[in-house]
Amino acid sequence: TDIEKGTYPHFMLKEIDEQPPVIRKIIQEYQDDHDNIKLDPEVRKAMLDSDRVYIIAAGTSYHAGLVGKQFIEKLANVPVEVHIASEFSYNMPLLSEKPLFVFISQSGETADSRSVLVRIKELGHPSLTITNVPGSTLSREANYTLHLHAGPEIAVASTKAYTAQIAVLVILAVDTAQAKGINLEFDPLQELGIVASVMESLTDQKETFEKIAADFFTETRNAFYIGRGMDYFVVQEASLKLKEISYIQAEGFAGGELKHGTIALIEEGTPVIALSTQKNVNYSIRGNVQEVEARGAKTCIISIEGLEQDTDTFVIPHVHELLTPLASVVPMQLLAYYAALHRDCDVDKPRNLAKSVTVE
Ligand code: G6P
């Protein structure tokens, strides 16, 4: 490959560090001369014409879709369903009158997603691909494309593509909201700029995450991440990152579901990482931490400025509440990276995995 690691030991670490410039690049690419959002008018029209958005994706891109649903529903007031591509083929839901299919795919080559695209084209439905590779199969075959502008992602574990997908989904949601005359009480591009700076401050604190990873993940066989609301989506991605590169059996759970089963797995010393960036669930997720602690779990809370408590392990600087996944995933990526490093795993090329899966 032509892409070099430079001074970095691994592509993954380089790509984690590239996230702030990628966010700034996205702001620039989707901004007009008056600092407003600039989007392909055909994409805007497709969004306005649709009564329901169906997001189709796999892996990390699916996790970005879960976050994107929140933006499109909360900001633009359009209902959204998010589907795992491979499942959609067998369990196709009843479709609305005017569905718009949005394929999220870093590579644009995922076979599971492509087979859904082929199927929905046969049914005559419009499609948009959000991808890092504009000439890719999913991009060529869909009606419209939005480009992630993240630059080539080499590490198998996706990092900068995830945050780029979320940023582009914010832009798509905001553009639709504005086109519908919905008044948003914040300046999205300015808030994304703040996110980029916060991401930078997080990637500047690598030693902190290296220490937490050494402490929590060096010995363990399993680990749990918990969150509620927006944080639930991020902890699913956090656990996927850890599984992929460190081979620790990890799951991301909704805090409220613990008591319905998972809490049975907590033993003396089981690592539980809690994420708390949402005001409405700050109290309840901390309650969950106490519950697992009482059963012997080794816990750690990563929170955000404004919601923090003295005992929190790490506090993320403030960002707009809807945009927290862009910031909160960075510590999670770094925790997974250092866990893999401490366990002598092949960070960039984990066993059994491929960067893009072109078979169903
Ligand atoms: C593979 C990769 C994952 C990725 C998924 C979807 O499984 O290992 O990192 O999230 O495919 O890839 P896509 O290119 O469609 O986003």
From TrEMBL:
The record's catalysed reaction(s) read:
D-fructose 6-phosphate + L-glutamine = D-glucosamine 6-phosphate + L-glutamate
Tell me yes or no: is Cytoplasm among this UniProt entry's keywords: yes
In this entry, which stretches build a coiled coil? none
- Per the record's keyword annotation, is Cytoplasm included, yes or no? yes
Print the keywords alphabetically. Aminotransferase, Cytoplasm, Glutamine amidotransferase, Repeat, Transferase
Give the subcellular location.
Cytoplasm
The residues covered by the SIS domain are 43-182, 213-350
The enzyme's main class, written as a single word, is transferase
**What molecular functions are annotated in GO for this chain?**
glutamine-fructose-6-phosphate transaminase (isomerizing) activity
Enzyme Commission number(s): 2.6.1.16
Its biological purpose: Catalyzes the first step in hexosamine metabolism, converting fructose-6P into glucosamine-6P using glutamine as a nitrogen source.
Assembly and oligomerization: Homodimer.
Record-given protein name: Glutamine--fructose-6-phosphate aminotransferase [isomerizing]
